[in-house]
Design a protein that fits this description.
Oligomer: homodimer
Strand order of the largest sheet of chain A: 8-7-10-9-11-12-13
Strand content of chain A: 15-25%
Distance between the termini of chain A: 29 Å
Largest interface: A-B, 91 and 91 residues
Number of strands of chain A: 30
Chain lengths: 708, 708
């Protein structure tokens, strides 16, 4: 939304205008197959169509005027497709005629060159000054089956399938209607184009209030207002699943996004964290986007991940097991009662168990055996969902083998347990149509699609169950004011990089830092060290030294007082020699860390999405093997646990090769506190705990860096 | 093939019998929709059909006899579907009547219980004794469009699409014919069922000789004769691509395979290595198997991986770039000449470059602009393939926007450069049919499918270009006889585990082992150590000690002679105390390894596939993070390089964080030599070089283990 936070119902003018003015239409558009006049007619739009073009004569279907000023009644929406240089002038006409909603179809703005970028800025500035909202530019606009209105010159479906589409490309508005997966459309759609004014979050909030939209399908190239998007999406997706395809997921793709829609594509890692935070269901490609949207409109989320397989083919059942395992679902264990109930249907040499190989029972009598098996399986309390593999015997001659009516009816009777189908054979399209007829079950293109979709349904169910409130950390709250004063002090001192103050901040939030003290003389050092346990280390405290080891400003493994004094003198001498300009205000004396596993915890502030949290294995592998987990902050305790579990390194933390397990609770707490710290204090730009040493007793911070 | 290596043309009897006898058919099968009599009729089989059942009367379509003995003429093939207990008796009838080819449809053999397993063994033994070949049991048999014969009771396609199918499940014989991807069938098909006799390698060799089969599609659950399969497949796939789906790719799936087809599913890692060795194109699921089979029948392998994108939608182009990057293809750079040639078609503010966003040129005049752009792109020498995204405007009213004829014609004119299509919109099925009509181009379900398929086409092209001969290693050949005599000595000594002999063997193959010697007394030790450079280490030489460090049989980092003597005495004392029963014959004195990166190289002998080679990062991460590469031996130099490149650790070997790169040539040589060593000497069961220390100068073996 814009800063002025306008009425979200402004989008009604776009989706359901009573009168629409078409500006920039050529005479060739009249009667052409690819023309808004044609699509409006086919949609059956009942509002008034006003063409602004002195060379087009009015017809039964539309009025025509030479200019907007001549239109006698109020226009709700203007659809502009004049060349880019002329758009601003048309906007002026709109303003004069009190038009508040404008779709700019014209290409060649921020999506093209610098001239286009400037034109877009000027247009937007004018619109803001004059209370005009713009969809686009570079868009085919909207389609709405409820008002039978579309601004698209490309033919789109007009059906009330409960999916609301919001896209950054007109491509998705064309729809994708293959016979084996019909219908796969939408009831409402917006192409955001360059999204210069109306953006994704505004459309999400709008769809939230539309009863006919149950699932939101989203194609996204880039978001500038990341935090607002996450806030809106996290709210909306608690009631309506948002299924999303992020384009530009590779580096080359990201670069191309900039030239296509003029959007800034941020780092995909931050996007992934944002989608996760908002409970968004992500798709890897357009085909999956379509399948997932339809699946979320078809199925409720299952209660768990235990899947039964019912297959007419043993080979198919094995493929299903592979797909189930690959999607991190589990093969359900059937209860003894279920097995006993079905025993008589099978020959003695077939074990009645999951997967159920049903060829012999159904070959004997499909219409008795099939529903009995499917229902018994769905009634089993150990089963959350069923993958059903059946041959596509729906041609009339196969009446005795047609299971589709049973699948349909039984799926409708067990709405909490998805029945996901896959088929092979002669009439896949017909089988699909029959199974999907009542919208209670689906036939998937592959078993991997079926299992992958089920996993996403289950994850979405878990998201809805989860509390979204981050864990409260009492010590941290106590520490917030202390930290505010430390930060105030640092700010006044002009510091942008905190060292000992950083350790104080961490301690103020109740974090466990290896015991330390500061000394500004040899005598003070000796007295401070007396309160610490050897071995110790020394680090120069200086705003002028960032890389301590390069400048000799560090000494490790000091085992007694004698060595301590020598190390101190050597350290000062070395710094003086290697970094003569550096002013060493004091030394930090600190206990050496105990033995343990090295981790790093970091936090940073993303310009679009705000605070982010990272945890990784310490050492060379974090960076090179990419073994880290990334989230938007704040994180809940469950999220913090997830982050650690996501690391390959977690196997080592859990105690590989007979080693004791590290104290996970301490690592989780450190994560939660860093999360809260960066959220509490917007002055902090970056926090880096590296390393955090974890062992079976706890976790200790050895070194840290806080950047303001 | 069986040990007797029979005439591969025996399969002609299965695929093209002049007379087939059906044994076990019930009267209910007559006229039923799911019946071999019905499918044979619909296939238009022209041979003679003989039903063996006293209760079935002959008809116009088939003869009928009470028993096989009554059939007046020779029967080429018997199709048996009597209950499992009766199969052996029918086989006896077949033997009496000189029937050499038998399909056993009946289930319940090794796929079921112990009784079934025994029945299968008895049946097979009888068949072998009597010169009968068996397909199955637990199979629906064969289909062959060239002879219009099928043994399947399930309706299958009868079309000459140039794919030969071999499957371990009847599922795949049903075919999968969705409208947007028609036809996706096969001209010949075999369901191997339990594969008790006729196996995969035999069918591959048969298809190799069938002109009508250009691509072999394979569904596999398990192979017992792995080495024979690899040999045959590697030969066949040089002329005919083999596209393969391995079921049981997960642990639960593997377990299910055993009960489905009675096949032993080996480790998937070995399978993957075998498929790679044989140049097999692997699919992840049934849908991908179908798409890939069709693609290999449609396209030749491209010369490289440089892809141009031509899209009517900018948003679609970005999705294509993502798919191209994800598939490890590259975005082609268009030549200046190509860009200049197309410049006038585009408005000035659109950069003419890859991806080509063609909406404006085609909206102006599709039939002039579209072919010009596609041809110019294909003519560009920097382009190996084109991904073409176009709206499915094939309905009659869209005649002015229908690009399908251009795609079809131009794809046919540039057979070396695949044109892969993706579409969106109202008539996907129609667009697909029109584009695919001449078999020169395809429309893919998703851009990821298109790019993924192209990557596999390119990889297959590279496989065909590659020499299959392993690199010759002169030193190794020289060393083979030395090694044979060392092995002979060890065998005579009853050793199953080689230590110092292992080092000798490695050196005989020209491998670089850290300098070492053996001493059996203190004096000898001092004199041997004089020829080595400190620091040194000591290891107890004893057939009774496997884990040296547990028994105190090892001493590291010895810096001078004084320490050497002390270490020697301490070592002997420690072993005496900790492993009093161990007989220490001598000590190994060895130079400590230089600083470097730790690797492990291993080789083992798989019972089905033979010698395998592995390389991994040393240390805890190899095992826990699974950072290793695995191949069947022998490997070529290129394969050895690939193995190293496959490791995440290769980034560290290449010199991360400013460190010098390790000497890769030395690591490659060590791999090649271990590969040759295990291939040359079948007595060796396992070789383990751990660690091999690599640095910028070379690679040194520190420790090794050879198991016989």
């Amino acid at each position: 939304m814009t800063e002025s936070d306008p009425d979200p119902r402004i989008l009604d003018l776009f989706f359901s205008p009573r009168r629409v003015a078409l500006i920039g239409l050529s005479r060739a558009a009249v009667g052409a197959p690819v023309s808004i006049l044609t699509t409006l007619k086919e949609f059956g739009y009942q509002g008034r169509i006003t063409v602004i073009n002195p060379n087009i004569a009015p017809s039964e279907e539309y009025e025509a005027y030479a200019s907007l000023d001549e239109v006698p009644e109020a226009v709700d929406l203007a659809v502009i497709s004049v060349p880019r240089e002329g758009v601003l002038d048309v906007l002026k006409d709109c303003a004069r005629n009190a038009i508040r909603a404008v779709i700019v179809v014209t290409q060649g703005f921020a999506d093209a060159d610098d001239t286009g970028k400037k034109l877009q800025e000027d247009m937007l500035a004018f619109a803001r000054e004059n209370g005009i909202r713009i969809l686009g530019p570079n868009t085919i606009g909207v389609a709405n089956a409820f008002s039978s209105f579309t601004s698209s010159f490309i033919e789109t479906h007009n059906e009330t399938f409960p999916v609301g589409l919001v896209s950054q490309s007109g491509l998705f508005m064309m729809g994708h209607n293959i016979v084996n997966n019909e219908p796969a459309g939408f009831c409402m759609a917006v192409d955001l184009g360059n999204a210069s004014d109306i953006g994704l979050d505004e459309v999400l909030a709008y769809y939230e209030g539309v009863d006919g939209v149950r699932v939101i399908q989203c194609h996204l190239e880039g978001i500038e207002r990341g935090a607002a998007f996450v806030e809106t999406a996290a709210r909306v997706s608690r009631t309506k699943p948002i299924v999303l395809l992020k384009a530009g997921r590779t580096e080359a793709g990201q670069a191309a996004v900039a030239s296509h829609s003029g959007a800034v594509a941020g780092e995909n890692e931050v996007y992934r964290a944002a989608f996760r935070k908002a409970g968004i269901v992500t798709a890897d490609n357009a085909e999956q986007l379509r399948v997932l949207s339809k699946a979320f409109a078809t199925y409720a989320a299952p209660k768990g991940r235990r899947v039964a397989v019912m297959s007419f083919s043993g080979g198919g059942a094995i493929l299903a097991i592979d797909a189930i395992e690959a999607a991190a679902l589990t093969l359900a264990s059937l209860s003894e009662a279920t097995k006993a109930e079905l025993r008589d249907l099978f020959p003695s040499w077939i074990a009645v168990d999951n997967p159920l190989d049903v060829w012999i029972p159904i070959a004997r009598d499909l219409h008795s055996a099939f529903p009995r098996i499917l229902e018994a399986t769905l009634r089993d309390e150990g089963v959350d969902a069923v993958i059903c593999i059946y041959c596509s015997y729906t041609l009339p001659k196969y009446e005795a083998y047609d299971s589709s009516v049973h699948i349909r009816d039984i799926a409708r009777a067990y709405p909490g347990k998805p029945v996901l189908c896959w088929t092979y054979g002669m009439d896949i399209a017909g089988f699909t149509r029959k199974v999907e007829q009542d919208g209670a079950a689906m036939v998937f293109p592959s078993l991997d699609d079926a299992a992958g979709t089920l996993a996403k349904l289950a994850a979405y169910g878990e998201f809805r169950e989860r509390s979204s409130a981050p864990a409260a950390i009492p010590e941290a709250n106590l520490g917030a004011s202390t930290v505010a004063s430390i930060l105030g002090r640092a700010r006044n001192g002009g510091a942008s990089y905190l060292f000992t103050e950083g350790l104080e901040i961490l301690e103020a939030y109740g974090m466990n830092v290896a015991a330390w003290s500061v000394a500004s003389s040899e005598l003070e050092l000796i007295s401070e060290a007396a309160g610490l346990t050897y071995p110790l280390c020394l680090k120069a405290v200086s705003q002028d030294i960032v890389h301590k080891s390069d400048s000799g400003g560090i000494a490790l493994g000091i085992i007694d007082q004698e060595e301590l004094v020598l190390a101190y003198r050597r350290l000062l001498a070395e710094v003086r020699e290697r970094a003569p300009q550096a002013r060493v205000s004091a030394v930090l004396v600190q206990e050496m860390a105990p033995k343990g596993k090295e981790l790093m915890i970091g936090a940073k502030r993303d310009p679009s999405f705000g605070p982010c949290l990272i945890v990784g294995a310490g050492g060379i592998y974090t960076e090179i093997l990419g073994d880290y987990a990334f989230r938007l902050a704040p994180v809940t305790e469950a999220e913090a646990r997830d982050m650690i579990a996501e690391l390959a390194f977690s196997k080592i933390l859990a105690g590989a090769r007979g080693e004791p397990a590290c104290h996970q609770r301490s690592i989780v707490e450190a994560l939660l506190k860093v999360s809260q710290l960066i959220c509490d204090h917007p002055e902090i730009r970056e926090i880096d705990l590296n390393p955090l040493i974890a062992n079976e007793c706890g976790a200790v911070i050895v070194d840290s860096r806080i950047i303001l």
